[in-house]
Each structure stands twice: as structure tokens, then as C-alpha cells.
Amino acid sequence: MIEVNSMYLEDKGRRQREHEKCNGEGRRKGAQTFRRGRALEFYRQLGTKRDTLKKQLESNELQSIHSIIAGELKATEAIMDEFIVTFQLTEILGETTEE
User: Fold this and answer.
1) C-alpha span between 84 and 91 (Å, rounded)
2) What is the pTM of this model?
3) d(Cα 65, Cα 47) in Å, to the nearest integer?
4) Could you tell me which of 27, 36, 40, 21 has the C-alpha nearest to residue 80?
5) Which letter, b or e, does each residue of 77-95 get, where b requires 16 or more Cβ atoms within 10 Å of its Cβ?
6) Contact 66, 57 (CB under 8 A)
7) Packing angle between helix 90-98 and helix 25-58, nearest 10 degrees?
8) Cα separation, 44 vs 50, whole angstroms
9) Which residue among 10, 16, 19, 77 is the one 20 to 30 A from 39 at the CA level?
10) What pLDDT, on a 0 to 100 scale, did the predictor assign at position 26?
């Protein structure tokens, strides 16, 4: 009977440690890192769109829609600024630009 109780207690302790591991900081940081990585990738995509819009502004062929492109560029830059604040990317973007 003692052997069965000790096995039960060991299993209960193992399950409790696993539960704590899943609900602890380590688990959340992994998900947070994943989301942050996705946010950075989306930010880079916005940067590519911004660069494309800037090139289009310089194009003589697109002078007829210059005001539309300028509006899109301004909106894209506003989204990028809000994105940095919302996802707290200031430190990360500072690190990537310094390298």
C-alpha cells in the first residue's frame, strides 16, 4: 500500500510541476516572442510598401495620381508609428537599426 501511495504522490507532483511550467513565465515568453516576431515581420512589410510608395512619388509617369500616392504614404507611415507603440517595438527596432 505504501508503494502505491508514493507512486501516486510522485505522479501528482510531476503533474503539478508540468502545470506550473505550462502556466509559468517560460510558456508566455515563448508565445510573446512568437507574436513579436510576427509583428516585426509585418512591420518590415509595411516598410517595403512605404519604400515602394516613395519611389512611385518620384516617378514622372505617376504625376497624375501624386496626391493619392502621397496620401497612401502618409497613412502607411502613421500605421507604422502606431504599430511601434501598440506592440512596444521601440527597443527591438532600435537594436536592429544599430547592427
Assistant:
1) 10
2) 0.62
3) 21
4) 40
5) eeebeeeeeebebeebeee
6) yes
7) 60
8) 10
9) 19
10) 47
Cα separation values, 11 from 4, 20, 23, Å: 11, 14, 18
Residue with cell 509595411: 46
Task: Map the chain to HEC letters.
Answer: CHHHHHHHHHHHHHHHHHHHHHHCHHHHHHHHHHHHHHHHHHHHHHHHHHHHHHHHHHCHHHHHHHHHHHHHHHHHHHHHHHHHHHCCCHHHHHHHHHC
* pLDDT, tens digit (0-9, with 9 covering 90-100), for 25-78: 445 567 777 888 888 999 999 999 999 999 999 999 999 999 999 999 999 999
Cell triple for residue 32?
510573446
- Written as nine digits, the cell of 22 is 505550462
Q: Which cell numbers hold the place of 1?
A: 500500500
Q: Using CA atoms, how far apart are residues 81 and 88, in angstroms rounded to an integer? A: 11
